[in-house]
Amino acid sequence: MSTDTAAKPVALITGASRGIGRAIAENLGRDHHILVGGTNAERVQAVVEALPSAEAFIADLGDAEAMKQAWEQTGLTRLDVLVHSAGLAWMRDVAEAPLSEWRQMFEINVFAVAELTRLTLPALRAARGEVITINSGSGYRSRGGSALYSGTKFALRAFTDALRDEERGTVRVTSIHPGQVDTDMQVALQESYGNANYDGGRYIAPESVADTVRLAIEMPAASMVEELAIRPVNP
Ligand SMILES: NC(=O)c1ccc[n+]([C@@H]2O[C@H](COP(=O)([O-])OP(=O)(O)OC[C@H]3O[C@@H](n4cnc5c(N)ncnc54)[C@H](OP(=O)(O)O)[C@@H]3O)[C@@H](O)[C@H]2O)c1
Questions:
Q1: 39 lines ligand 1 (CB under 6 A)
Q2: Domain that holds residue 69
């Protein structure tokens, strides 16, 4: 654990070892104590050590028992911010997609989000906190190859719409929908499209997605960013 004060609001960020989640951890880490989520202990520890106040939250989100244990180990009874950034993405035509791939992607992109939210909801309610999901443009649109990924992100939007309604007045719920972001995930997707000339500068910087998270949490208490789309200028 690295810490400079015990009095900061607390944010749990999944997928904070890399990519968008890491940028969110660095941004919120300026004034929050951060629980850095990930599976890779070395990468998680490197993020923890770079932040003023942070600790590791290591769990494979596909393992419900590990996720429960990691949450119980925090001992937290109040949680100000829960950001769901961990996610999987690959393209596959329906004709080529085995049931195991549907299950794997829904497990991380949807079921783990639902379960971690359920576990943390009493602490979020106690803090009158907020839940932020990193959804996608694919949460609004589906096309050839995108049945799995868009399927999970449409389901995630259904989840956030319902949760927002249920917790209105207690916990704020924000769904952020980035277009292409310059991360490992985008590198792998472009490779799978056969794009040999990856140019990260064409895409949204992870730090820009982090700025939208900060915008949502800094809204005055009477207002809520329900959904926010951020797109590259020249996709
Ligand atoms: N990149 C884009 O273009 C883009 C666009 C729109 C939306 N999004 C969404 O943004 C979110 C973050 O994407 P990204 O681009 O930052 O992805 P990324 O660079 O691939 O990073 C994925 C993160 O998720 C974590 N993760 C993966 N599987 C996990 C598991 N089973 N248990 C726990 N953690 C796991 C990884 O942790 P470890 O490395 O420690 O395992 C890593 O921190 C995703 O939900 C994605 O769908 C991305």
A1: yes
A2: 10-230
